[in-house]
Amino acid sequence: VLENRDLQDSIKPQKVEFRSLNFNSTLHWQPGRAREARDTVYFVQYKVYGQSTWQNKDDCWGIQTHVCDLTNEIAEIQEPHYGRVRAASAGVYSDWSLSCRFTPWRETLIGPPTVTVVRRNKSIILKLQAPRSPYKRKRGSKIPMTNYYDLLYQVFIINNLVDEQHRVLVYEGKNKVIKIEDLRPGVSYCVVAKTYVPVLDRSSAYSSRQCFVL
């Protein structure tokens, strides 16, 4: 019995946590202290805070990886959720390891907008597109994150002649089409953008650089 108890403790999953980007939410964990036996498998359950019964995640029942996609299971974005994981090895099952409480609306990270650059003579037109959630409209298109939050776009321009690391904020607001004027011909510029969520006071990462010479 003691040997089994030791094995139970040593295979118990560690650091169970949700990670979420644009409501694509996955549960992650690390293997237990035991150097992971080849036959270790994991079982995942989830529930909404306040529910008494846990639900099995069928796709993550007896898996060997350390991640489980729960995007579709936690679509109630305002509700707090929990996930938990247990391990099994050589016929012995660990206790469950519990995640912290996870509320998608509060905790998901918002991605940057997609930026398209259209060149003119001394100006550029930027077209911004909000990141999309995994949830679909009846017609099948993915619902943009602007449906769930009041988002602002922040656009920065980098003059590569001056300093490739120095970003100048040239626009903040909700417009999806922005004109940037008075750019010098023959100079290499780059543009990056962020999404900012005022209600959470949180910014996305920068979009990838779009570079151009007029």
Quick structural overview:
The chain has helices at residues 2-11, 104-107, and strands spanning 14-21, 24-30, 41-48, 55-63, 67-69, 81-89, 92-93, 97-98, 114-119, 124-129, 132-136, 142-144, 152-159, 168-173, 177-180, 188-197, 202-203, 210-213. It is built from 2 helices and 18 strands.
What does this structure look like?
The longest helix has 10 residues, at 2-11. 7% of the residues lie in helices and 48% in strands. The chain starts with a helix and ends with a strand. It has 214 residues and is mostly beta strands. The protein is elongated and about 75 Å long. The model has no long low-confidence stretch (mean pLDDT 92). The strands form 5 sheets. Strands 3, 4, 6, 7 and 8 form a 5-stranded antiparallel sheet that branches. Strands 13, 14, 16, 17 and 18 form a 5-stranded antiparallel sheet that branches. Strands 1-2-5 form a 3-stranded antiparallel sheet, with no helix packed on it. Strand 13 (152-159) and strand 14 form a beta hairpin. It has 2 domains: 1-106, Immunoglobulin-like, CATH 2.60.40.10; 114-213, Immunoglobulins (Immunoglobulin-like), CATH 2.60.40. Keywords: Disulfide bond, Receptor, Signal. One of its GO terms (molecular function) is cytokine receptor activity. InterPro entries: FN3_dom, FN3_sf, Ig-like_fold, Interferon/interleukin_rcp_dom, Type-II_Cytokine-TF_Rcpt.
